[in-house]
Amino acid sequence: MNRTLIALLAALESLLAVGIGLGITLIPLSLMWAVQLDSGIGWDVFYRAAADIWLVGHGVDLTVTLDPVLAANVGLAGAEKPFLISIAPLFFSVLTILLGVRLGRKSLESGARFVGPVAAISTFGGLTVLIALSSINANAMPTMWMALSFPTAIFGAGLFIGARGEIGHSGGRAERLQQRVTDWAFGLPLQVRAVLTSSLRGGIAAAAIVVGISAVVLSVMLIANFSTILGLYEGLQGGGGGSLILTAAQLMFMPNFVMWVASWFVGTGFALGIGSSVSPVGTELGLVPALPILGAMPTADLAFGFVGLIVPIAAGFFAAFFVRPSLVRGLGGAPALRWLIFTVFGIALVGGALIGFMAWASAGAAGPGRLVDVGPNALRTGGVAAVEFLIAATLGLYAGSRSPSKPAASTPAKTPENSPSSSR
Hints:
Layout: H1 3-35, H2 43-56, E1 62-64, H3 68-74, E2 83-85, H4 91-110, H5 115-134, E3 140-142, H6 144-162, H7 164-167, H8 172-187, H9 190-224, H10 226-236, H11 239-252, H12 254-266, E4 271-272, E5 277-279, E6 282-284, H13 310-331, H14 337-362, E7 374-375, H15 378-402
Antiparallel strand pairs: 1-2, 1-3, 4-7, 5-6
């Protein structure tokens, strides 16, 4: 395929990626503007709101200054002063990564080498600059260095994941760099390679199990508390348009809510404002944001809340249990105790780091006053998860050593009767 055509197609894909992400908020906001034409608010206000949401969804901090009348009606301390919005609706980041992965795979299939990815990143970056500059307003000011870099970096990460197989066949520096990394990895001792591989697999599996179970539990909680959530919708009296916008906003924060449930299972819980805490050991709530989805949240101490700690323990146990056979094969037989210890600590470190990173990404400042602290504490959540994975992985590797293993097929030794030379 012609390189120019490949570059144009990649640029078009990037344009669609930006358009989809921005349109998810811009379309409903534009409909609201069309319905309320008599309000005197221009469409540009709704566009800037959509642009700000898109940027915040990619980790960009937003400094908000409320009108004095609106600040007085909010009823929160500090609302009259500029405050920071740093909690990101992770739906946008996840969507951008997935679209980047899709484009990366298509570039690989077309044999575009670096033409497609470079054109895609350049287009996405250029559009991001336009969105960031057009969103500047005295009442809502994004942090520009974040706005100019974070969305493009997230899209580039997805693009790299999707096109990672292309690098080794592209020639030039990229191929030589990959070859050097490969040579370095295979130059490590056999035991070190086996421990590193098992640590990565076990840690990623443990974190994935915790997040997966959290997503399932959140779904069950939403269904079980549907009547309570519906009652909160009715109490807000936002009308059809307001309820639609509120529902869309909650869906954008759904990955955040999944991670909050995961932090609850870890045991550290999460905050809904300074002085509040929702965890297995206790729930302390003050004034919480008016989100109907919070109707699925426990509002009092749970008698058997500590049972939730079984989730990370079981995740670490099964991850280590199932990674042990590959570890034994990699070590070439019965592993020495020190390699098992290194693997256990590796699984705990990788799993705890992933949980801590996701906790950090799901938290931030959601408004003035006490709302500057919303979500889980990343260091505490990651650290406690690492300790839990450490204990569970130790048990899992030990249990794996006690499970019956299939004996290796024995090869008959060559004798003068069955050797090839004896048949001649």
